[in-house]
Amino acid sequence: MCRVALLFLVVLSPWASAAAVLFDQGHGQRFVIEREQALDLSQFAALWRSEGFDVRSASGRLTPTVLGSVDALVISGAFSDYSASELSTLYDFVEAGGTLVISLHVGPLNGALLSHFGIGVSNGVVLERRQRLNQNGSDFTVAAVARHPLTEQLDRIAVYGAWALNPGREATVLFATSDLAWMDLNRNRRFDQGEPEYPYAMAAVRPLGHGAVLVLGDDAVFQNRYLRDENQQLARNLVAWVKLRLAAAQ
Protein backbone atom coordinates (compact mmCIF):
# COMPACT_ATOMS: atom_id res chain seq x y z
CA MET A 1 0.00 0.00 0.00
CA CYS A 2 2.78 2.43 0.90
CA ARG A 3 4.68 1.52 -2.24
CA VAL A 4 1.64 2.28 -4.40
CA ALA A 5 1.13 5.67 -2.71
CA LEU A 6 4.79 6.56 -3.15
CA LEU A 7 4.70 5.65 -6.85
CA PHE A 8 1.59 7.78 -7.29
CA LEU A 9 3.36 10.81 -5.83
CA VAL A 10 6.40 10.30 -8.03
CA VAL A 11 4.31 10.09 -11.18
CA LEU A 12 2.36 13.23 -10.39
CA SER A 13 5.21 15.37 -9.08
CA PRO A 14 6.23 16.89 -12.49
CA TRP A 15 2.73 18.37 -12.77
CA ALA A 16 2.42 19.53 -9.18
CA SER A 17 4.17 22.87 -9.65
CA ALA A 18 2.73 25.42 -12.06
CA ALA A 19 4.75 27.22 -14.69
CA ALA A 20 5.96 30.54 -13.30
CA VAL A 21 6.34 34.06 -14.68
CA LEU A 22 8.39 36.67 -12.86
CA PHE A 23 7.89 40.44 -13.18
CA ASP A 24 11.09 42.38 -12.54
CA GLN A 25 10.32 45.34 -10.26
CA GLY A 26 13.81 45.96 -8.94
CA HIS A 27 15.15 48.32 -11.62
CA GLY A 28 13.21 51.52 -11.11
CA GLN A 29 9.92 50.25 -12.51
CA ARG A 30 7.09 52.66 -11.75
CA PHE A 31 4.21 50.49 -12.91
CA VAL A 32 3.76 47.22 -11.05
CA ILE A 33 1.53 44.16 -10.81
CA GLU A 34 0.33 44.74 -7.24
CA ARG A 35 -1.50 48.01 -7.99
CA GLU A 36 -4.58 48.54 -10.13
CA GLN A 37 -4.07 52.09 -11.37
CA ALA A 38 -4.39 52.91 -15.06
CA LEU A 39 -0.74 52.40 -15.96
CA ASP A 40 -0.05 49.43 -13.71
CA LEU A 41 0.15 45.80 -14.84
CA SER A 42 -2.31 44.05 -12.53
CA GLN A 43 -4.61 42.97 -15.35
CA PHE A 44 -1.70 41.59 -17.35
CA ALA A 45 -0.60 39.61 -14.29
CA ALA A 46 -4.17 38.39 -13.80
CA LEU A 47 -4.22 37.08 -17.37
CA TRP A 48 -1.14 34.93 -16.66
CA ARG A 49 -2.79 33.63 -13.48
CA SER A 50 -5.98 32.77 -15.37
CA GLU A 51 -3.88 30.50 -17.60
CA GLY A 52 -2.41 28.63 -14.66
CA PHE A 53 0.87 30.49 -14.15
CA ASP A 54 2.38 31.19 -10.77
CA VAL A 55 2.88 34.98 -10.96
CA ARG A 56 5.74 36.49 -8.95
CA SER A 57 7.56 39.80 -8.67
CA ALA A 58 11.20 40.53 -7.82
CA SER A 59 12.44 43.71 -6.17
CA GLY A 60 16.14 42.92 -6.06
CA ARG A 61 18.95 41.87 -8.37
CA LEU A 62 18.31 39.18 -10.93
CA THR A 63 20.47 36.19 -10.09
CA PRO A 64 20.58 32.57 -11.24
CA THR A 65 18.80 31.65 -8.01
CA VAL A 66 15.98 34.15 -8.64
CA LEU A 67 15.48 33.00 -12.23
CA GLY A 68 16.15 29.32 -11.61
CA SER A 69 12.53 28.46 -10.80
CA VAL A 70 10.70 30.59 -13.38
CA ASP A 71 9.87 30.01 -17.03
CA ALA A 72 9.28 33.58 -18.21
CA LEU A 73 10.52 36.99 -17.13
CA VAL A 74 8.80 40.32 -17.86
CA ILE A 75 10.87 43.52 -17.77
CA SER A 76 8.46 46.40 -18.27
CA GLY A 77 9.54 50.03 -18.05
CA ALA A 78 12.93 49.63 -16.37
CA PHE A 79 14.53 52.94 -15.38
CA SER A 80 17.88 51.74 -14.04
CA ASP A 81 20.71 49.71 -15.52
CA TYR A 82 21.33 46.00 -15.26
CA SER A 83 24.75 45.00 -14.03
CA ALA A 84 27.16 42.95 -16.13
CA SER A 85 26.43 39.89 -14.00
CA GLU A 86 22.67 40.40 -14.41
CA LEU A 87 23.02 40.69 -18.18
CA SER A 88 24.98 37.46 -18.23
CA THR A 89 22.34 35.81 -16.05
CA LEU A 90 19.56 37.00 -18.37
CA TYR A 91 21.38 35.67 -21.42
CA ASP A 92 21.90 32.29 -19.76
CA PHE A 93 18.24 32.21 -18.68
CA VAL A 94 17.03 32.67 -22.25
CA GLU A 95 19.58 30.35 -23.79
CA ALA A 96 18.52 27.60 -21.40
CA GLY A 97 14.88 27.89 -22.48
CA GLY A 98 13.41 30.90 -20.71
CA THR A 99 11.19 33.52 -22.34
CA LEU A 100 12.19 37.14 -21.77
CA VAL A 101 9.70 39.95 -22.49
CA ILE A 102 11.10 43.50 -22.57
CA SER A 103 8.85 46.52 -23.03
CA LEU A 104 10.24 50.04 -23.07
CA HIS A 105 9.20 53.22 -21.30
CA VAL A 106 12.34 55.24 -22.08
CA GLY A 107 14.12 53.33 -24.80
CA PRO A 108 17.69 54.60 -24.41
CA LEU A 109 17.70 53.67 -20.72
CA ASN A 110 17.47 50.03 -21.81
CA GLY A 111 20.02 50.27 -24.61
CA ALA A 112 22.62 48.11 -22.89
CA LEU A 113 20.02 45.48 -22.02
CA LEU A 114 18.77 45.25 -25.61
CA SER A 115 22.20 45.32 -27.19
CA HIS A 116 23.14 42.31 -25.07
CA PHE A 117 20.61 40.45 -27.23
CA GLY A 118 21.66 42.06 -30.52
CA ILE A 119 18.76 44.53 -30.68
CA GLY A 120 19.04 48.32 -30.90
CA VAL A 121 16.69 51.13 -29.88
CA SER A 122 16.23 54.66 -31.19
CA ASN A 123 17.27 57.85 -29.42
CA GLY A 124 13.98 59.54 -30.29
CA VAL A 125 10.32 58.63 -30.14
CA VAL A 126 8.41 57.74 -33.28
CA LEU A 127 5.48 59.78 -34.57
CA GLU A 128 3.02 58.65 -37.22
CA ARG A 129 1.02 60.33 -39.97
CA ARG A 130 -1.16 57.31 -40.67
CA GLN A 131 -3.14 55.06 -38.36
CA ARG A 132 -3.30 57.75 -35.67
CA LEU A 133 -5.40 57.28 -32.55
CA ASN A 134 -5.41 61.03 -31.84
CA GLN A 135 -3.98 64.23 -33.24
CA ASN A 136 -0.59 64.24 -31.56
CA GLY A 137 0.87 61.45 -33.68
CA SER A 138 2.45 59.59 -30.77
CA ASP A 139 -0.51 57.25 -30.25
CA PHE A 140 -1.18 55.02 -33.26
CA THR A 141 -1.68 51.48 -34.45
CA VAL A 142 1.09 49.40 -35.99
CA ALA A 143 0.53 46.62 -38.48
CA ALA A 144 1.50 42.97 -38.10
CA VAL A 145 4.16 42.21 -40.69
CA ALA A 146 5.09 38.59 -39.91
CA ARG A 147 3.26 35.33 -39.35
CA HIS A 148 4.05 34.09 -35.86
CA PRO A 149 2.14 32.65 -32.90
CA LEU A 150 2.36 36.12 -31.34
CA THR A 151 0.47 37.67 -34.28
CA GLU A 152 -2.26 35.01 -34.39
CA GLN A 153 -5.67 36.63 -35.04
CA LEU A 154 -4.01 40.04 -35.14
CA ASP A 155 -3.49 42.53 -37.93
CA ARG A 156 -2.41 45.40 -35.65
CA ILE A 157 -1.79 46.57 -32.08
CA ALA A 158 -1.92 50.02 -30.50
CA VAL A 159 1.06 51.91 -29.08
CA TYR A 160 1.09 55.08 -26.99
CA GLY A 161 4.48 56.74 -27.28
CA ALA A 162 6.92 54.24 -28.73
CA TRP A 163 10.59 53.81 -29.56
CA ALA A 164 11.84 52.25 -32.77
CA LEU A 165 13.75 48.98 -32.67
CA ASN A 166 16.67 47.83 -34.76
CA PRO A 167 16.11 44.07 -34.82
CA GLY A 168 19.60 43.18 -35.96
CA ARG A 169 20.29 39.98 -37.85
CA GLU A 170 18.70 37.43 -35.56
CA ALA A 171 15.31 38.93 -34.67
CA THR A 172 12.07 38.93 -36.66
CA VAL A 173 9.99 42.11 -36.83
CA LEU A 174 6.41 41.40 -35.75
CA PHE A 175 4.79 44.85 -35.91
CA ALA A 176 5.86 47.99 -37.77
CA THR A 177 4.71 51.53 -38.52
CA SER A 178 3.68 52.85 -41.90
CA ASP A 179 6.32 54.33 -44.21
CA LEU A 180 5.17 57.82 -43.18
CA ALA A 181 6.29 57.48 -39.58
CA TRP A 182 9.23 59.61 -38.54
CA MET A 183 11.74 59.98 -35.76
CA ASP A 184 10.97 63.12 -33.76
CA LEU A 185 14.61 63.91 -33.04
CA ASN A 186 14.03 67.46 -31.75
CA ARG A 187 10.87 66.41 -29.87
CA ASN A 188 8.68 69.22 -31.20
CA ARG A 189 6.04 66.74 -32.46
CA ARG A 190 6.37 68.22 -35.97
CA PHE A 191 7.99 66.67 -39.01
CA ASP A 192 11.05 68.76 -39.86
CA GLN A 193 13.44 68.54 -42.76
CA GLY A 194 16.06 65.88 -42.15
CA GLU A 195 14.10 63.83 -39.66
CA PRO A 196 14.09 60.24 -40.95
CA GLU A 197 10.86 58.76 -42.33
CA TYR A 198 10.70 55.00 -42.37
CA PRO A 199 8.56 51.95 -41.55
CA TYR A 200 9.94 51.44 -38.05
CA ALA A 201 9.94 48.17 -36.14
CA MET A 202 7.81 48.35 -33.01
CA ALA A 203 8.02 44.73 -31.83
CA ALA A 204 10.52 41.98 -32.57
CA VAL A 205 11.22 38.47 -31.38
CA ARG A 206 14.57 36.72 -31.32
CA PRO A 207 15.15 33.01 -30.72
CA LEU A 208 18.22 32.29 -28.63
CA GLY A 209 19.34 28.80 -27.75
CA HIS A 210 16.29 27.04 -26.37
CA GLY A 211 14.54 30.29 -25.43
CA ALA A 212 13.39 33.56 -26.94
CA VAL A 213 13.32 37.31 -26.37
CA LEU A 214 10.33 39.49 -27.23
CA VAL A 215 10.91 43.26 -27.32
CA LEU A 216 8.18 45.90 -27.54
CA GLY A 217 9.00 49.53 -28.21
CA ASP A 218 6.29 50.67 -25.79
CA ASP A 219 5.43 49.53 -22.27
CA ALA A 220 1.87 50.87 -22.48
CA VAL A 221 0.75 47.91 -24.59
CA PHE A 222 0.14 45.71 -21.52
CA GLN A 223 -0.82 48.43 -19.02
CA ASN A 224 -4.31 48.31 -17.51
CA ARG A 225 -5.63 51.31 -19.45
CA TYR A 226 -4.57 49.92 -22.82
CA LEU A 227 -4.95 46.18 -22.30
CA ARG A 228 -8.00 45.83 -24.50
CA ASP A 229 -9.00 44.75 -28.00
CA GLU A 230 -5.88 43.97 -30.09
CA ASN A 231 -3.49 44.56 -27.20
CA GLN A 232 -5.37 42.09 -25.05
CA GLN A 233 -5.22 39.56 -27.88
CA LEU A 234 -1.45 40.06 -28.09
CA ALA A 235 -1.20 39.42 -24.35
CA ARG A 236 -3.24 36.24 -24.72
CA ASN A 237 -1.08 35.15 -27.63
CA LEU A 238 2.03 35.73 -25.55
CA VAL A 239 0.82 33.57 -22.67
CA ALA A 240 -0.34 30.84 -25.07
CA TRP A 241 3.01 30.95 -26.88
CA VAL A 242 4.94 30.50 -23.64
CA LYS A 243 2.70 27.57 -22.70
CA LEU A 244 3.26 25.94 -26.09
CA ARG A 245 7.01 26.35 -25.80
CA LEU A 246 6.99 24.82 -22.34
CA ALA A 247 4.91 21.89 -23.56
CA ALA A 248 7.26 21.31 -26.49
CA ALA A 249 10.26 21.28 -24.14
CA GLN A 250 8.87 18.50 -21.94
Key features of this structure:
250 residues, alpha/beta, Rossmann fold, nine-stranded mixed β-sheet
Structure report:
- The chain is an alpha/beta fold and 250 residues long.
- It has a single domain, classed as Class I glutamine amidotransferase (GATase) domain (Rossmann fold), CATH 3.40.50.880.
- Helix content is 26%, strand content 26%.
- Strands 2-1-3-4-12-11-9-6-7 form a nine-stranded mixed beta sheet, with helices on both faces. Strands 8-5-10 form a three-stranded antiparallel beta sheet.
- The longest helix has 21 residues.
- The protein is globular.
- The N terminus is likely disordered.
Structural class comes to alpha/beta
Adjacency order of strands in the biggest sheet = 2-1-3-4-12-11-9-6-7
Approximate shape = globular
- Helix count from the secondary structure assignment: 6
CATH class category: Alpha Beta
Number of strands: 12
Number of domains: 1
Q: How do the SSEs run, as a string of H and E?
A: HEHEHEHEHEEEEEEEEH
Give the CA-CA distance, first to last residue.
30 Å
> CATH superfamily, please?
Class I glutamine amidotransferase (GATase) domain
- Give the mean pLDDT: 92
Question: What fold name stands as the CATH topology?
Answer: Rossmann fold
What is the helix fraction of residues, given as a range?
Answer: 25-40%
